[in-house]
Amino acid sequence: MDVNGFSDPYVKIYLKPDIEKKSKHKTTVIKKTLNPEFNEEFFYEISLSELTNKTLEVTVWDYDLGRSNDFIGGVCLSCHSQGDALRHWMDCLKNQGRRVERWHILTNELPQTLSHD
């Protein structure tokens, strides 16, 4: 959180591996909150067979004007995930074309595949 006691969070999403660097989606920044609700949708056009080899990387950042943005937390969803993240990924694969929503607890470690921008 910033010195004012709040954050200015936004979310970055990548579908990795992302050789052409075209998978990035970014939400809008929600100013001065510790409990953001983004209610934004994103779409990837990809075959089910391709999706089994991908990882959806979701990271939350605190926007800071004139400084580096601060990492808040993240979650990775893939066939290599564990627990709730794996269950969510498998539900998405089983329910192709349908919305599958879940809450996740964010880890405080940057994913190993993250490319900074």
From TrEMBL:
UniProtKB keywords: Metal-binding
UniProt GO cellular component terms: extrinsic component of synaptic vesicle membrane
Source organism, top-level taxon: Eukaryota
Domain C2: 1-104
GO biological process, one term: spontaneous neurotransmitter secretion
InterPro entries, alphabetized: C2_dom, C2_domain_sf, Rabphilin/DOC2/Noc2
Any one GO MF annotation of this record: metal ion binding
Membrane-spanning intervals of the chain: none
Protein name in UniProt: Double C2-like domain-containing protein alpha
Organism for this UniProt entry: Labrus bergylta
